[in-house]
Amino acid sequence: MSMVRRNSSSPNKSANNQQGMTQGRGVDFDIQQELARLQEIIYDSFHIPLTQWTIVDEGKLLDQLEIIGDRIPEAIRKALAVLEQEQEILSEAEGYAQRIIQSAQQEAAQILDESGIIQQAQREANQLRQQVQHDCETIQSQTIGEVEQLRQITTNEIQQLRQQSLAECQKLEEGANEYAERVLTRLEDELGEMLTVIRNGRQQLYDNASSRGTSPPKQTPNLPKKRA
């Protein structure tokens, strides 16, 4: 997030400026770091072989989304803190301008006795005061607009990511059920074929024993029949 600031020769203002920029970068880094962690969770999840599906731990996914959601108010709070520091900087600038104006007025009163010169100095002081006030209002409006824009963008991105993740989880669950059904059906068919071979072998042994006049092999309980 970019910040618009008025240049000043005040050392305190430069230091506060640098601190505000550092906090802004910290806010962006925290959100980006948590989004990267969310991406790692998806990449590290179990991938179903021979498919394009990946099974994601819903608990981890929702927990990470909750962490990101918690970071949004923190980011706004930090941004408001930057705005407060900006207001302090503007107040210091205005106070600095006021001191310059007062010093100019005192020097003008001491050196110049003519009323015209004094009035001219007063007009210039009023113009400078109005200019400082205008600059302060402009910077404040820009900063508030940037904070609101960041909040809206971040909220929309989190909402879209949450909806997309839930949809993907539902698709993965449906795909996993279909895959399991196919595997179980194939195993059932293979077991049915094996049972058929076993029954035929038993029947052949029984028929051979009967044809030779020998006692047929002891009957064992029938194996379960293949389901229709």
UniProtKB/TrEMBL annotation:
Residues 111-182 form a coiled coil. One of its GO terms (biological process) is cell division. Keywords: Cell cycle, Cell division, Coiled coil. Residues 1-25, 206-228 are annotated as: Disordered. Residues 1-22, 206-222 have a biased composition (Polar residues). This is Cell division protein.
